[in-house]
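Design a sequence for this backbone.
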């Protein structure tokens, strides 16, 4: 009987401890309500930053030469800022032009001498097939022409 009594005493103590623990946890939860709101605000700010990073510029390296255009990629996304880093690797004057006649879209660099470079920033709003070419002389006909796909 003495053994049973001490077991009951231990169980009572353990139950009391568990109840106390949960009471304490609830108290902590209540007192943490304010900091939790602050954490949520931080998470929202992080999400906004990630969205900004998501719309960060895509860089396309473009090399102009006799007679062709080489691009690091031929596909970009609509709505994302695209930075064409254009370098004239040839020994003639060249320039870089992006065009979609159906959409009435056209953008390009100035004429670049040998070794010169220029950046062209474009945010395509319409998906579709765009032509890239060199508008100098008959360079387009000589082969300085390629296709750029703007995907949704
Ligand atoms: Cu050219």
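Sequence:
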């Amino acid at each position: 009987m003495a053994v049973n009594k001490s077991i009951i005493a231990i169980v009572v103590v353990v139950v009391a401890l568990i109840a106390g623990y949960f009471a304490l946890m609830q108290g902590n939860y209540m007192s943490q309500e304010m900091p939790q709101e602050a954490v949520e605000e931080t998470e929202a700010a992080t999400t906004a930053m990630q969205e900004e990073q998501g719309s960060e510029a895509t860089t396309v390296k473009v090399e102009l030469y006799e007679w062709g255009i080489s691009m690091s990629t031929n596909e970009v996304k609509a709505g994302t800022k695209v930075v064409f880093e254009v370098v004239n690797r040839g020994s003639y004057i060249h320039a870089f032009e992006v065009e979609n006649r159906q959409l009435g879209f056209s953008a390009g660099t100035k004429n670049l001498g040998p070794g010169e470079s220029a950046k062209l920033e474009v945010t395509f709003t319409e998906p579709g097939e765009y032509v890239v070419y060199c508008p100098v002389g008959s360079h387009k006909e000589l082969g300085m022409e390629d296709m750029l796909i703007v995907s949704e």
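The radius of gyration is 33 Å.
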